[in-house]
Amino acid sequence: MTDRPTPTLRRRDFVVAGCAAGFAAFMVGMAYAAVPLYDWFCRATGFNGTTQVSTAAPGEVLDRKITIRFDANVGGGLPWRFEPEQNTIEVKIGEVVTINYRVINLSARETTGLAAYNVAPLNLGAYFQKINCFCFNEQKLKAGEKREMPVVFYVDPALVRDSDAADLNSITLSYTFYPQREPSRPVAETRTGGAKL
Description:
Blueprint: H1 7-45, E1 52-53, E2 65-74, E3 80-84, E4 88-92, E5 97-105, E6 111-120, E7 128-133, E8 139-141, E9 146-155, E10 170-179, H2 187-192
């Protein structure tokens, strides 16, 4: 004679199976949410050198000055020359500054790039406030096209209250442009300039 599970054991098995399925569903959901959550965390805290986005100038400009260095890079596969108009500037903390980067598409076709950015030292991303930046949008350049792209920023006066930044005298703002894949167009559209066969 075989032992049949009692109703209590069956109920316990269903609870364990339900918990396991719920945990698996939660983990799958967290895998999909990990990238946006990490991006939100970096933007909120300045973690890993992620700069902040501001909509207005700060309320004060301090006498303390800091050197800002500008770095420009282009990822493999993007035929662009990319550089800042100046390599370094000295600014007052809280002063709103505009700096231009220059880019030229060296290829014989239209290409698209998107810039990733950060600041160094990495723990100072929370104090580097951008008001306007080309990095927020894809940049599409025609063959041989040149463009000046402004960055409007300030260093938050709250920096002077951070004991880890007491001896700080420079910040580096770094950009790297990466190629973006062009959406494929139907052959008929390419050959006929938009007319469909």
